[in-house]
Amino acid sequence: MSSGPLLQVDNLQMHFPVTAGMVFRRQVGAVRAVDGVDFHIEKGETFGLVGESGCGKTTIGRCILKLEEPTGGSIRFDGDEVAHLPSTEVKAYRRRVQAVFQDPYSSLNPRMTVEEIVGEPFLVHKACARDEIPGRVRDLLSLCGLPGRVQDRYPHEMSGGQRQRVGIARALALRPDFLVCDEAVSALDVSIQAQIIRLLEDLREELGLTYLFIAHDLSVVRHICHRVAVMYLGKIVEIGESESLFADPKHPYTQALLEAVPVPDPAVEKDRQFEPIKGEVPSPMNPPGGCAFHPRCPKAMPSCSDLTPAMETVGPDRRAACPHTGPTQAAA
After folding, report:
1. pLDDT by residue (tens digit) across 126-158?
2. 257-286: buried (b, 16+ CB within 10 Å) or exposed (e) per residue?
3. Annotation: CATH topology of 7-96+176-330
């Protein structure tokens, strides 16, 4: 077992080819969904990944889960390289790395009962005898706050919060070390979100879990995450401790995201002055030169279109990629 971070991601790239031609298909471009991402996650930590839709958050999660084969870069889990893991070793890897998906209804087989859904990992991985499965399922459901009587129910007979608890129970069946939570609470009502977040926190402490928490709801991220990385157009633009980043955002994109969060007090919200981010997110097929955010950045300078900002230290355990906060390097 490695003494370093549980997960280490270095220069991760995921480019999806774009082809043309009816008969002789040829590649005419690539969608740069993830374009050189670096971060690490310590054991027992909840690490948040935030950004607009299409920025590459989910693609990173899918690469870690071995649902996508990265174009380039390195993913090391507990010291072992898994970015290009042979297919014969993926099954063993997934005993330690599991996922909780966004929509609990579409991620659960509607033709299977709860007992069959939560018990399936035991069958696939031959983790226990078949006659032991009902008891193990009952224990997992209890751990996730569900009564044993739901074992014979189908997903459509349950509420959204109950279905997500079933999804979490299934993810925990093999006692993994690491969970990728991809928008795990965004499809739920606010009151149910709080319950699921509390459950995830309790499970992390009780079972020693580590989370990659992918989300767009900044208030949820601030509450549950120890550190946060902000993504824009396939790159991380700022990373640091959650409280520090939310209290004093350095990158203009992070500042714009936080300014757009509504204030709960209607009187304050009515008089609040803020400028929304202008324009649209550029196409990842043809990203702008220099800093990718410069066409929409209120602080952009002429040099921002020519220079690619490097990730630089801008405070204790804080890094940001912006010409206003650190030195730059010439674009390739």
Report:
1. 989 999 999 999 999 999 999 989 999 999 999
2. bbeeeeeeeeeeeeeeeeeebeeebbebee
3. Rossmann fold (3.40.50)
